[in-house]
Amino acid sequence: MQRWRGRDGVPPGWGRCVVTIGVFDGVHRGHQQLIGRAVALARELGDLPTVLITFDPHPSEVLRPGSHPAQLTTLARRAELVAELGVDAFWVLPFTLEFAHVSPAEFVHELLVDRLHASAVVVGRNFTYGYKAAGDVAELERLGQRFGFEAIGLDLVADGDRGRTVTFSSTYIRSSIAAGDVEAAADALGRPHRVEGVVVRGDQRGRELGYPTANVAVTEHAAVPADGVYAGWFVRPGPDGREERLPTAVSVGTNPTFSGQVRTVEAFVLDHSEDFYGQRVAVDFVARVRGMTRFESIEELITAMDGDVATTRKLLGL
Fold first, then answer.
1. Which helix (H) or strand (E) holds 244?
2. Collapsing DSSP states into helix, strand and coil, what is residue 89?
3. Three-state SS for 230?
4. Domains of the chain and CATH, by start
5. pTM for the structure as a whole
6. How far apart are CA 134 and CA 149, in angstroms?
7. What angle do CA 185, 186, 189 make, to 5 degrees?
8. Is 266 a catalytic residue?
9. 214: which residues sit within 8 A by CB, 6+ positions away?
10. Given 266, 274, 299, 300, which residue is catalytic?
11. 3-state SS class at 264
12. Least C-beta-crowded within 10 Å: which of 123, 139, 153, 241?
């Protein structure tokens, strides 16, 4: 997959293509359907390439500084996920105040027509674009008729598998993660929620207790689950370049038993004694084991940790 950045990132001589546009944070099941429709349409139209347009930083941070939503996927992870779905080019447009003032017609003419020569554009039904979000799907359809491309707006994906009907959206997934319901988040994502970061030195209390942990300094704005203990997978690049997934019990919180103040993500990797310090890793959250508790003694804490590991093994099917 090609990766482009900036308005001038499109290679010279680029031909016709099918385009899909959005932030795509999480690349959840709704996004997957949208991208899948774009990829299928590109094949129907003569095996054209599919281009995905996304934005960095998140538009809300530029329009309302300090309002950056919790991030479900890093930009690099987003690129990996959409490549797996068949996208041919990943185009990142820097979102600036200047860009925010571009009119809907200018957005379409400059980016979709002049630069990409779009044959079709596939977006979500709630898609808006241009200055003050003045452009919508109806406007995109009108401009498509004018400039010679097809505009398709798809409804959001909904599901009722968990006893209630929910519409898959990044907002819904963020709220599930904030509540510690990582299983609901996984349902909507189509895979476990992941945080990424570098392993840094911590207080090393876990080592003293017989449970050495990897203290993961997660990326800025990462959507970290509610305080508690979780079963999950510790992920790092393997020797063959593929992901190596190791079972892990993950503690999220401030270590209240030790009157901690800093919120951390600490992974105890089962049946593994390696020091992961300095490695760039990821943690996939599979299920919540329990909430965070302040124990009255070290003995009580160790007993609870013994139980957490046993529960983690069960939840991961080990």
1. strand 243-253
2. strand
3. strand
4. 2-158 (3.40.50.620), 193-315 (2.40.30.30)
5. 0.91
6. 20
7. 85
8. yes
9. 199, 234, 266, 267, 268, 269, 276, 277, 281
10. 266
11. strand
12. 241
Amino acid at 19: V
Cα–Cα dist 224/251, whole Å: 11
Rg (CA), the chain: 22
Instruction: Report the amino acid identity of residue 99.
Output: F
Tens of pLDDT, residue by residue over 5-31, are: 999 999 999 999 999 999 999 999 999
* Residues found in the chain: 318
Tokens representing residue 137 in the block = 């799907």
Would strands 150-154 and 118-124 be described as parallel, antiparallel, or unpaired? parallel
For residue 302, the SS3 value is: helix
Which tokens sit at 136?
């919508």
Q: Locate 194 and state its tokens.
A: 């992941």
242: Cα separation from own chain's centroid: 19
Q: pLDDT by residue (tens digit) across 43-100?
A: 999 999 999 999 999 988 888 888 889 999 999 999 999 999 999 999 999 999 999 9
User: What is the tens place of the pLDDT at every residue in 147-205?
Assistant: 999 999 998 776 655 555 667 899 999 999 999 999 999 999 999 999 999 999 876 66
Helix 182-189, helix 170-178: angle, nearest 10:
160
Q: Is 55 helix (H, G, I), strand (E, B) or coil?
A: strand
Query: Which pair of tokens denotes residue 55?
Result: 């934005």
